[in-house]
Amino acid sequence: MNKRIITLFLTTFIVLILIVGCSNKDREMDANASSEAFNANRDFKEILKEAKGETVSFYGWGGDEDRNKWLNKTVAPILKKEYDITLDVVGMDIDDILAKLSGEKQAGLKKGSIDMIWINGENFYSAKENDLLFGPFLEQLPNFEKYIDNEDEEVNSDFGFSIDGYEAPYSKAQLVFINDSSVTKETPKNAKELMKYCKENKGKVTYAAPPDFTGSAFIRTLIYDIVGHEQFLDMKADKKIVKEKIEPALEYLRELNKYLWNEGKTFPATSGEVKNMFGDGELVMTMSYSPYSVATEIEKGVYKDTVRTFLFDKGTVGNTNYIAIAKNSSNKAAAIVAINEIISAKVQTTQFEELKELAVVSYDKLNDEEKKRFDSIKIGQGVLPQDELLSKRLPEMPANIVPIIEEIWIEEVVGK
Amino acid sequence: MNKKTPYILIIPIVLLGVLFIFGVVNGIVQSLGYIPAFGLKSITLDYYISILKNPIFLDSLKLSLQISIVSSILAIILGTILTAALVYTNHTEGRVIQVIKLAILVPYTIVALFLISILSQNGLMARAFYKLGWISSQGEFPLLLYSKNNFGIILGYVWKEVPFVAYFSLSLMNSVNKTLGEASENLGASKLKSFFYITLPLSMPAIRKAFLIILTFSFGAYDLPFLIGATLPKALPVQAHIQYIHPDLRHRPYAMALNGLILLITWIMAFVYYLVTKKKRIKGEINEKY
Amino acid sequence: MKSINSHSLLKFLLYITLFIILVPVLILILWTFASRWPWPKLLPEVYSFRSIKEVLSPHANAFSTLFSSIFLSLTVAVLSAIVGTMTARALVLYDFVGKRVIDLLSIAPILVPGTVFAMGIHIVFIKMSLSDTLLGVIIVHLIYTLPYSINIMKDLTDSIGKEMELQAYVLGASPLKSFRFITLPLLIPGLMSSISMAYIISFSQYFITLLIGGGNVKTFSVLMVPFIAKGDRTLSSAYGLIFIVSTLLIFVLIDRVFKGLSFKTRKEEI
C-alpha cells in the first residue's frame, strides 16, 4: 500500500520534471522561430507569385450564416479565379483562436494552421501585445492606398489602440436601437428619453449582461450620452478613476433598473436572447451591433415589417472589424493577397449588398462606376441611410477600459 | 491463466492515461501562472489567493454546490426508479430505449432552448396560463429561469440526467435481475422484496458511479448556468468561462486557477464519495458474512 | 394482485418520462419551420423553410461535415468499447501491480474540468505533432469516452464473472476461443451501451475538438454550436434536429449490427 503511494508520487514528480524540462526547451525554439520571417516589404507581384496555388484559412466567428455564405460563395470564387488561391473558412470564436495561437506559441510551433483572423478591439490589442500577430503589412496592400482613407481615425486605431499596420479593416459596425412602430410610437433620442420610455413600458426593456458584446456597447453608449465621450480617449485604465468619471451614468443605470425587465435584478446572458424576447413581444425594444440587421430580419420573417432602427441624437458607439494575420501562419503571401482583395471596392460592395454591412472603402476614393454600383444597392426596410449612421457614430473607448467598466457594472448596477 | 495477460490488457489505457496526466499537469502549471508565451514565467499561488480572497468566490461556490447536489440527488432517485421501470416492464431494448437515449444526446445548449421555450415568462406554459385566463400578462407568470433559486438549471440537469442514470445502470440491473432477481422470485420472494434486497444492492456499483458522474459534471459545466442562470451570483464554471474569454491574455491564469479550484473541489467530492461508499461496502460485506 | 399494481404504476411512470422527454423535441420540430412565434400564440405565426434551405445549401457543408463527424465518432466509439472491455477485464479478473492507479485513471477524466485538460494537452499534442490531426482528435475523444466504456464493461464483466469462461477453458477451449464463444455473447448488451454512450460523448465534444482539431477536423458540433450561441432559434432547431435524428439513426444501426452479431454467435454455437 505504502509502496504504491510512493510510486505514484515518484511518477507524478518525474512527469512534472519532464514537463518543466520540455518547456525550457521551448524558449530556445521560440528564439529560433523569429529568425526566418516573411518579408512583406517587397514588390506585390512577387507576393502574388508566391501566393499562387496556395490554400489560405480564414478563422473567425462562425455563427453568422449570411457571412459564411458570402465568404464561401462570393469571396472564395473571386480569389480562386483571379489569384488561384483557395479560401478555407473556419468558424471559431476569437477566444478559442487566441487560445490556440498561444498554445502554439508556447509549444514553439512555427507553421500553424491559422492564416487570417477576424479580430478587433481588446482581442487585437492583447494578441498584438503577446506577439501572436504578423505585421506590419497594411501599408503594403495596393488596395489600401487605392480605396481606404488613411486619415480615418478608425483606420489608424482600433478601440483606442494604434494599429501599426497589424490588421486591415474588414467591415464597419455600429450599435443601433430597434423597436416596433406598431407597439410603441416613440424612439428615444437620448438617455433621458430612454428613461421615460422605460417607465412607460415598465418591465419591457432590458439589455444583455456584459461581457456580452452588444450589452456592453449599450452601456458604453449610455455612459457617452450622460458624461460625454471625449474624456475616455486618453483616460488611464485605473478602476478608481474610471468609476469616478462614470458615477453619474452608474446612478442613471441603477435608476433605470427599477423599470427594466424583472426590475434589473437579473439580465439575459446573451444579446441573442434579448433579440428573441423582442421578437416574441416580451420586450418593446432591442439593440444590435449590425446596423442593417432589421432589414435582414424582416426579410427572413423574424421581425414584423413595422420594426425600425433608431439612434441617439448624440450618436452611438461604432467600431470597425479587422483582419489580421497569425504570426505563425504558413501562407502569409496568400493571406496578404486575399486581404488585399477583400478591401477592394468590388468585394466591399458585395459585402454591403449581401450582408448589409457598412463598407470600409472611402466613398470619395471610388471611381464613377464604382460609386454608381454602390448607390444602386437597396438597403432594405426599417433601417437608416449610411450617412445618418456615420454622422452619429462615436468612437469606441480604449480597449483596456472596457473590461473595467464591465467589472464596475457587475459590482454597482446589477440588482442595485 | 497467463500472468502477462493483465499487463497486455492495460497497455492502451496506460498509454492514454499517461497522455491524460501530461495534459492535466500542463494545465495546472498554467494555473500557477506559468505561461511563457505571455511572458509569465514565475510559478506563483497569487492567482489562487486573489480568487479565494474575493467574496464573490464563496457565493459562486455555494451556488454551484447547491445546483449540483440538489439536481444529482433528484436525478439519482428518479433515475433509479426509471431503471427499475425499464427492467421490470421489460423495456430494456427497442424504441423506449431510443427515446431514453434521445434525452442523453440532446446538447445542453439545446436543453436551454427547451427550457426558455417552455418555462420562461414568455414560454408555452405562460401562454397556456394566459389563454386559460389564469394570468393577464407575462410578468405575472413566476420567474422560473434567470432566478436566484436556480429552478430552471436544476430542472434542466434532471431532465438530462435521469435518462443518463437509467441508461448507465440499465445493463447491470437487467443482468442482475435476470440472473439473481428472477431466481429469488422463483424461490418465493415478492417482487418488491427481491428488488430491494437483491437487485438494487447488486446494481449499486453502477448507480453509485452514475451519481459521481452527474454530481461532478453538473458542478463543472457552464452552459446551463450561463444561459439561464441569474446574473448574480454566477456559478463557478461560469466565472471560469468569463475569465477565459477575457480579452487580456495575461488574464488566462485566473481562468486556469478557477478551473484548478473546480478540479480541487471535484476531487474532494470524489474523495468524500469514496469514503462514504467504502464504508458502505465494508458494511455490506459484514452483513453478508453474518 | 399487488405485483400487478406495482407493474402498472411503473408502466405509468415510464410513459410519463417518455412524454416529458418527447414534448420538447416537438418544439424543436416546430421551431425548425417557424420564423416568428410571438406571445401569446401557442403555435407559430409565420412559417418558413429558411432553415431547411440554409442547411441544405452546399456552402453550409452541413451534410459533408455530418458524415465525417459520424465516421469520427463511430471510430472513437468502437475503439473505446475495445479498450474499455480490455481494461475492464484486467480490473475485474486479474490482480496486477498498479491496479489502483488504473482504477483511478478509469474515472479521472470525468473529474477534471475540460479547460484544464484541453489547454494542457494542446501543448503536449503540438509537440507530438498530433495537433490539427484526425488522430489527435480521436485520442482526446477516447480519453473522454473511456471512463463511460470502462465502467459499463466493468460492472457487466463483474456480474458475469470468470467462472463460465474458466469452465470452458478447463474443458479444453483456448482462452481466446472461450472468450469469443462464452463471454462475448454475454457482453453484447454492455458493448452496445458502451458504444452508444461513447458515440454520444464523442459526437457532442465541442471545445476540445476545436482546440485539438483546429480547423482541419470539422465536426458537426463545431459547426452547430455558434448558431445556438447566437440565439437563432430557427437555425439552432434545424441543426439540433439533424444532430438528434442522425444519432438516433446511428443507434438503430448499432442495434441492428449487434442483433445480427448475437444471432450469428448463437448459430455458430449450434
TrEMBL record, chain A:
It holds the Pfam family SBP_bac_8. This is ABC transporter substrate-binding protein. InterPro entries: SBP (IPR006059), YnjB (IPR027020).
TrEMBL record, chain B:
Keywords: Membrane, Transmembrane, Transmembrane helix, Transport. PROSITE patterns: ABC_TM1. The chain crosses the membrane at residues 7-25, 63-87, 99-119, 210-233, 253-276. GO terms for biological process: transmembrane transport. Residues 61-273 form the ABC transmembrane type-1 domain. Its main location: membrane. GO terms for cellular component: plasma membrane. Pfam families: BPD_transp_1. InterPro entries: MetI-like, MetI-like_sf, Sugar_ABC_transporter. It is found in: Cell membrane; Membrane. It is a multi-pass membrane protein. Belongs to the binding-protein-dependent transport system permease family. This is Spermidine/putrescine transport system permease protein PotB. The lineage of its organism: Bacteria, Bacillati, Bacillota, Tissierellia, Tissierellales. The gene is potB_3.
UniProtKB/TrEMBL annotation, chain C:
It is found in: Cell inner membrane; Cell membrane. The lineage of its organism: Bacteria, Bacillati, Bacillota, Tissierellia, Tissierellales. Its main location: membrane. It comes from Tissierella creatinophila DSM 6911. The keyword Signal does not apply. One of its GO terms (biological process) is transmembrane transport. This is Trehalose transport system permease protein SugB. Keywords: Cell inner membrane, Cell membrane, Membrane, Transmembrane, Transmembrane helix, Transport. The keyword Cell inner membrane applies. Belongs to the binding-protein-dependent transport system permease family. It comes from the Bacteria. Residues 66-254 form the ABC transmembrane type-1 domain. InterPro entries: MetI-like (IPR000515), MetI-like_sf (IPR035906). It is a multi-pass membrane protein. Pfam families: BPD_transp_1.
